[in-house]
Amino acid sequence: MDDARGRVGRPxxxxxxxxxxxxVDDLLVEIGYAAMTMKGIAERAGVGRQTVYRWWSTKAEILxxxxxxxxxxxxxxxPAGSPLDDLTAYLExxxxxxxxxxxxxxxxxxxxxxxxxxxxAELLAGKDxxxxxxxxVIERALPDSRMPIERATALLIxxxxxxxxxxxxxxxxxxxxxxxxxxxxx
Amino acid sequence: MDDARGRVGRPxxxxxxxxxxxxVDDLLVEIGYAAMTMKGIAERAGVGRQTVYRWWSTKAEILxxxxxxxxxxxxxxxPAGSPLDDLTAYLExxxxxxxxxxxxxxxxxxxxxxxxxxxxAELLAGKDxxxxxxxxVIERALPDSRMPIERATALLIxxxxxxxxxxxxxxxxxxxxxxxxxxxxx
Amino acid sequence: MDDARGRVGRPxxxxxxxxxxxxVDDLLVEIGYAAMTMKGIAERAGVGRQTVYRWWSTKAEILxxxxxxxxxxxxxxxPAGSPLDDLTAYLExxxxxxxxxxxxxxxxxxxxxxxxxxxxAELLAGKDxxxxxxxxVIERALPDSRMPIERATALLIxxxxxxxxxxxxxxxxxxxxxxxxxxxxx
Amino acid sequence: MDDARGRVGRPxxxxxxxxxxxxVDDLLVEIGYAAMTMKGIAERAGVGRQTVYRWWSTKAEILxxxxxxxxxxxxxxxPAGSPLDDLTAYLExxxxxxxxxxxxxxxxxxxxxxxxxxxxAELLAGKDxxxxxxxxVIERALPDSRMPIERATALLIxxxxxxxxxxxxxxxxxxxxxxxxxxxxx
DNA sequence: GTGTAATCGAGACGGTACGTCCTGTCTTCGG
DNA sequence: CCGAAGACAGGACGTACCGTCTCGATTACAC
Lengths: 186, 186, 186, 186
Fold this sequence. Notes:
The structure is a homotetramer.
Chain A lengths: L13 H17 L7 H8 L3 H7 L3 H16 L8 H17 L2 H13 L3 H8 L3 H13 L7 H17 L9 H11 L1
Helix pairs in contact in A: 1-2, 1-4, 2-3, 4-6, 5-6, 5-8, 5-9, 5-10, 6-7, 8-9, 9-10
Chain B binds a DNA duplex through helix 2 and helix 3.
């Protein structure tokens, strides 16, 4: 309705849109975030640069759109029977996401950029990928907890988040132990 | 010793060194990390660009040298009497550092860059500012703990670290509560 | 006939045609030839770009169509009684045309473009605005001359043409003197 | 002296300067004035674009510097014995220059551009290539003429100039006849 | 003192990405 | 089929910064 009314002119090309998102995905793996350029994205996608700028302002925006869906899916956990198993499975997924997954690499790059670029910070603030995924798990595992969900989230995610982002080797992490630690607090 | 050997030629100018470090400090506050350039640093310092490149490879290196001493000092806590008070004071200092301090801004910028730049990651790995400061406090407050210090560090720092870096408002944090949570685990 | 055959569909819009020609006239005065673009012309005329391209290939073509009629009229001189007066009047008109008239500005722009663009050269070759106007005057003033008309044309127009196009100030020209010079040769 | 005093920084590269001028000369012949771009010139010269922009503002300026010396030389005529021979030789050189010479093509392109670009007009006004060369010949051939040199110049050059620039075939020109016509006026 | 040598500020060098603009084509809807 | 609108791929624009390179000038140590 909002879309179909007074539309005039050539409509946006879906083909160009997915080509750009795919190019960003590929380039992130091949050359990394820092080496990615708007020019390079456009060329890789076989798309004019103006077309890229018409729909996204920065490579951060494209990366966000390209990675958000994957991220959400990778952090969604099947119920595992017990609270401890649930939390363990989630923390394992979190490590996998942050450490190895392309979507996680994108997330870390964006979060890094957000530390010194308010525009990116705002972009990330619009969709709290980690917090949302953790809330689902916590509410399922501890429906009766009286701890505010925000604080519980930080306690659950924080240690792993710090461990990975500060460059420590995730091999030194044990998800089950962390889950047990968490249950002792909450 | 390293310096006194058969050195010949004009020695490094201490004046140029501090001018560069000062310029980086100033520019970080004035224009932010992303907008800082090697060219801009050299001009602000009144120094030739070659002189900058001669002693540092990247702006990350300069920033690191400029901020490390401040960071260490801001995270060093006087013994406060009780373990809970000690830990609370440390977490308060940590929030101040990450959230408001220029040195903390530098640290966050570097940590962000480290997520997609291995050279910066290595730089940070060389000096574990957060981990070192936390270890001191933990060993003082809990001399008898049998939990590995690395894990204890992650449990202590993690929630606050995640809270701030993910863009949440530190006003929602309560250091004493977090310290109590921590003591329940360890 | 050409028009009356089995034409089908919406006929060419006269309104669009004159809007484009008017836009070109306006833009030539307002921003000059070099700054004119096909995009700008279409927008100024309130016309689709495709409509412009459908009927003209280049801005030179539009400008030519827009200025030709004016040029012809500005260079047509009423008989003035004597050959000398006729020629003087013509040379004065020529200076006015080349120096101040919008149509003259268009002509000079096109002639300039023709020096490095064969397509424009061919366009101008199709209608010899200056030569045709001079021939009329010369044949009227000197019906018995045995000098080839082409050479006479060059002798009459050349000095003024050179003067103006090489950027000299037309104030330094005296049409009557030039007419006398011309009569001495022919 | 003026140059050698307080110079600081790396001096301008003569090698880059001649590479650019040579590239412009080549490109003018190969692809023509209109198709020449600053980007193309820089690439052809194996030079950074900034280097081109540092020393010249427009392709017109480069072309002017590249062609001026050639033009001057091509229009300098050896004394031929008689005024008529002198003037004939000059007019023949003028036709050669305007019609066939690469330097002449450059001149025509610049003169064309000058018709709608005041910056180029000013550039050409700074060095009156045609006028200067004609003055030399006229003053040598007619040392006692009382006609102002500017007017004599226009009478001498004008017809040929008009003939060539308006796209007429120079085969139809006869230099000796034009020289005779000129002598009849002056 | 007189080299010798590494430093300094300055600024030009060849490159490359930036974000904008225009090109000429295309794809939509409405007359 | 024409027309307005506007997105498309492409490519030049002029600018900024990259990291390197030459300059002349300075400043130490070794002779």
